[in-house]
Task: structure prediction
Amino acid sequence: MITKTPKLLFLALVSLALLGACRGQPSREAPRRVFDDMDEQPRFQPEEVSTLFADGRAMRTPVPGTVAQGQLREDAALYLGKIGEHAWVGRVPLPVDEKLLRRGQNRFQIFCAPCHDRAGTGQGIVMQRASGAKGGFPAPPLAYAERVPQLADGEIFHIISNGVRNMPGYRTQIPVEDRWAIVAWTRVLARSQGAQVADVPSDLRSSILPETP
Ligand code: HEC
Result:
């Protein structure tokens, strides 16, 4: 036997459910809202005209000279490899330790070795293939023993960043610190080219020399 109260409750629930189903029906009419919360806000649409500003645009451009946070890059030595307008930074402006060199080695082998090869002789896989049937483009003259060691660190940084002649620039792919790490690694390669056994600290020599029979 059903008493009156549950019946009413049942009816109320059913009608609520039915009413609820009305929401979400597709309609071209503006929705009727009891509480509009923050649905309607005074705002400009993109490209909308505004009488507030002299140029009539609602969309504002940044004030000239605006710099995004973290993008000031005032340090020309670090970011451009330059001192003033015309001089290159002589040495990597970061502490050159084993960590930086290892990073440089790793980045060099990813970004530079395809063309310059791991030792920097310029016989990378790209060069081997490019100089095939069609003549290709010239092998990069990374003769570490001659020209490149005479370049200032800042100039090598600049070459990595912006490219040189046929070589593309890598500033969008390689972050600033990594570019300097690569510069440091090119010095390691140069140093290794004509190295003598005497250059190796005596306690490490046994690790690189073949065992004497
Ligand atoms: C797509 C192939 C390619 C890659 C990758 C590449 N280079 Fe080069 N690089 C060249 C070519 C080609 C030249 C010679 C450009 C010319 O003379 O026209 C060159 C020239 C250079 C020179 C100048 C040598 C000189 O005598 O002036 C330096 C320094 C150099 N590369 C360093 C690097 C470093 C460091 C990297 C890695 C970040 C790198 N390159 C990545 C192709 C490449």
User: Anything to note?
Assistant: The CA atoms of residues 6 and 74 lie 76 Å apart.
